[in-house]
Each structure stands twice: as C-alpha cells, then as structure tokens.
Write a structure and sequence with these properties.
The chain has 151 residues and is of the alpha/beta class. The chain has helices spanning 2-10, 22-31, 47-52, 79-97, 116-124, 143-150, and strands spanning 16-18, 35-38, 57-61, 104-107. The chain is globular, with a radius of gyration of 16 Å.
C-alpha cells in the first residue's frame, strides 16, 4: 500500500485513508495522507493522540456495533438524535485531544448498524447534522438501501 500511496501523494493528490487501526493510521500519516476516515471515530488506543499530533483531517463515523454484528437487528429510539449525540461526543473528544475543528468531518455512517429505514431517515434529516458545526460526509453506497429504492 505505501508505495502506491506515496506515488499518489507525490502527484499532488489529497488522499484519505479508511482505517480504524492506529498502526495503519501512523503509516499513512507518515506517508503524507491528508485525512484519516475512521469507522470507529478514533476510539482505538492512541488514535486521537496520533491524529492530534499530525496535520491530518479526520472523518469521524457513527457505527452501531461491530463489523460482525452491526446488522443484527439495529435499533434506535430516534436514529437522528442518537447518531447526532454520538458524533457530537466524538468531535468533542477529538477537539479535547487537540484536533482543530477545521480538521473534523462527521459521517452518520449510512448502513453501518442501521436498517434501510434508518438510512432513509438519516438522509431525509441530513441537514440537521450541519448544526453540529462540522462538514458532513455522506457515504451513500449501501447496496441494500439502493436496492430498496430501485426494486
């Protein structure tokens, strides 16, 4: 991965690395990555400090559960309120660690521990996440949601 990453960065292309592993974050940052996109919102040991000590931007994503169980009957009383509260807390943790608010992006995590109905509620209310004060990334490639719309 690192030779390809270095080549892309040398060409002047900003690169975002999707990882929740601190060692991969470190290698990517050392190679010149511009952003760390973490499905675990920098909760791994050392992730916040590592990113704070660098100049990378971070994308903090919401996910309910783990990769192994996140789609096993996800439940929310209010998906927008709960996802917003989680993202606000993770952004506050990032800020407290020394990551400037201008380096933080939030992602409601479409499909990550959410049903198709949850995804559509999040999409309908996507603007509400802007009130947290950070740019919002929306990864809308969840095939089950797209299939529900096109079937």
């Amino acid at each position: 991965m690192l030779p390809v990453l270095a080549g892309i960065i040398d060409a002047g292309v900003p690169v975002s690395i999707d990882t929740q592993k601190t060692d991969v974050m470190r290698a990517a940052i050392d190679a010149g990555a511009s952003m760390i996109n973490d499905v675990n919102a920098l909760q791994a040991e050392g992730a916040l400090a590592l990113c704070a000590a660098s100049r990378v931007a971070v994308c903090l994503m919401h996910r309910q559960g783990t990769a192994a169980d996140m789609q096993d009957d996800p439940y929310y009383d209010d998906v927008v309120v709960e996802v917003s509260a989680y993202l606000a807390a993770r952004a506050a943790a990032a800020s407290a660690a020394g990551i400037g608010s201008d380096r933080i992006v939030i992602d409601p995590g479409f499909g990550f521990g959410k049903t198709v109905a949850h995804n559509f509620i999040l999409l309908r209310d996507l603007q509400s996440f802007c009130s947290l004060g950070y740019p919002v990334l929306a990864g809308l490639s969840r095939k089950s949601s797209l299939g529900a719309v096109t079937s």
